Structures are given as structure tokens and as C-alpha cells.
Amino acid sequence: MKKQITNKHIYEILCEIRDLLKPEISGVEDKKTISKTDFLSQKNVYMWSDFKNWIANEAAEIIQPYPKPLKKFILPKNMTDDEIRKNVGSDTFTIDEAMGIVYRIVREQRNGEDGEFLNNGYVNIFYVKLGDGRVVAVKVSWNADLREWFLFASDLDAGRWYDGLSVFSRS
């Protein structure tokens, strides 16, 4: 009997090949800083194009974990970016601070462990001011199937974020 190869099988094989080609950054949890090059090539981080173009490519060459406590707000209902920013505060992070927050997630919850950031597939949201003055939503979520953190960025819009998601701002 022939085994049928599905798109899921092909996808899993491609992910394994991708992981074999990426270097493992040993001891990342022990490092105080990391080079942008090393950060971008980690196995357990996948950057979607808007995050890579707007945030990662514009960040400093050396990334430091964001050192300050973050204020966490769990959405009590579906809310737009405007509604969230009215409730949580309209403060924004810089690009370098955003990379520091993401680096902190990777250090503290490297393999999707429980911690400050949601690891159940829901997104963690924070707002970043880009060099051109635009404010974007940065979304970070743990993908348990692929065992990696997904990093997204998107323009603010009228779409609603689901209740239960976490939003971070300065404390």
C-alpha cells in the first residue's frame, strides 16, 4: 500500500529542512545582548515580512533585552486598536525597544514555556512608532506545532482584536 503524501507532510519536511539550515544560538538565555544577525537566524523565531522590513531591518546591530517591567492588559472583549489605545494608553515603543521585548520573550520563554507572554497561540500585542512616524501593532505568538515564536507587524485599522489577547505597554 502506498503512503499518500499530503501538503501537510511536505510543509513539515520543509520546516525541518529550514531548521537544519538555521544555526542554533546556544546559551541565548545567558547572553545580555545578541547581534541582530544572530537574532534573525535563530531556529525558534519566524518573522513575517512586515515585521522583518519595518522592525528587524531598522533595529540597531546589537539587541538588548528590554529591561523594564511591562504593563499587561488582557482584552475583556473584542476591541479595535483605537479602543485598546484609549484603555491601555497610547504610549509606543521605539523599534529598538520592540526588538528588546521580542528578545526578552525568546530568552525567558525560549521553548514556549509559561511566563509573562501568552503561549497558547493567542497574540501578544504592543505598539511601535516607526521612523516615518507611523504607529504599528507588533504581534508575537507562540506556534506550538512548529515550536517557534511568530513575529508580525501591521498597520492600525478598524479590525477587532479578540478578547483574551494580551496588550503590553510601559508600566
What does this structure look like?
The structure is a single chain. The chain is α/β, with parallel strands linked by helices. The protein starts with 6 loop residues before the first helix and ends with a strand. It contains 5 helices and 8 strands. A hairpin with a 5-residue loop joins strand 5 (124-129) and strand 6. The chain is 28% helix and 23% strand. The protein has helices at residues 7-21, 36-40, 49-54, 81-88, 95-108; strands at 34-35, 45-47, 62-63, 70-74, 124-129, 135-143, 148-155, 166-170.
Secondary structure: elements and pairs:
Elements: H1 7-21, E1 34-35, H2 36-40, E2 45-47, H3 49-54, E3 62-63, E4 70-74, H4 81-88, H5 95-108, E5 124-129, E6 135-143, E7 148-155, E8 166-170
Parallel strand pairs: 2-7, 5-8
Antiparallel strand pairs: 1-3, 4-8, 5-6, 6-7
